[in-house]
Amino acid sequence: MLNVVLFGPPGAGKGTQSEILLQRYGLVHLSTGDIFRANIKGETALGQQAKAFMDKGELVPDSLTISMLESEVVKHPDSKGFIFDGFPRTSAQAAALDSFLAGKSSAITCMLALEVDEEELIKRLLNRATTSGRADDADETIVRNRIAVYNRETSPVANYYRDQQKYRGIVGVGSVEEITQRLCSALDTFL
Ligand code: ADP
Questions:
Q1: Residue 9 · residue 147 · CB < 8 Å
Q2: Which atom of ligand 1 is nearest to the CA of 8?
Q3: CATH tag, 2-188
Q4: What is the whole-number distance in angstroms between the Cα of residue 33 and the centre of ligand 1?
Q5: Ligand 1 pocket by C-beta < 6 Å: which residues?
Q6: What is d(CA 29, CA 18) in angstroms, rounded to the nearest whole number?
């Protein structure tokens, strides 16, 4: 299986690039943010629990997030692999994903990390708010909190994959096509 963690701060372009990569490599795209938003829309119990955290730009607790992610993976038993977008976001999630995949005789192939500086991220997210309808994009205080949470809780996850020689940093500024090209070149070194 080809299992890619597409990593990077909010607004780095993970969603955009995932859509392109999943077609190129025939993978299933699992975005924890999208799954939570679908649950909020569908007014499920999970959605209700997640919403309080998401509205503040905080992380949804690991226990909820991990069980949700695992139940999504098992919905695709015949998949050639997955693009994990927005997961893992904590070291505990990374460890849980590894042991879950190991139980399926599989593993993470690589982490591709989109690098974009902070002021550019804030610009992109506030701009995305005009079309995304996402309350967590529209308020600069919440946007800045999401980036602070990323720096504090999520960015250390990169070391987890660095230690396994699975990490590649990718310049996330440029045209969509240029960035896709960089991602594919990096990914192809793992095939
Ligand atoms: P972005 O990458 O732009 O922040 P996402 O759609 O990935 O957007 O995430 C939106 C929100 O969903 C996060 O701010 C967080 O509250 C919640 N979330 C998504 N993925 C996770 C995760 N793996 N662990 C905890 N919370 C998550």
A1: yes
A2: 2
A3: 3.40.50.300
A4: 5
A5: 10-11, 32-33, 36, 53-54, 57-60, 65, 86-87, 89, 93, 136, 146
A6: 7
Q: What is the pLDDT of residues 122-172, one digit of tens each?
A: 999 999 999 999 999 999 999 999 999 999 999 999 999 999 999 999 999
Using a cut of 0.70, tell me whether the model's pTM lies above it.
Answer: yes
b/e per residue 124-139 (b: at least 16 CB within 10 A): bbeebbeeeeeebbee
Amino acid at 95: A
What distance in Å separates the CA atoms of residue 15 and residue 163, rounded to the nearest whole number? 26
Q: Please classify residue 105 by burial: count the beta carbons closer than 10 Å to its beta carbon, then call 0-12 exposed, 13-18 middle and 19+ buried.
A: exposed
Q: Where are the domains of the chain?
A: 2-188
Q: Which atom of ligand 1 is nearest to the CA of 85?
A: 7
pLDDT digits (tens, 9 = 90+) for 72-126: 999 999 999 999 999 999 999 999 999 999 999 999 999 999 999 999 999 999 9
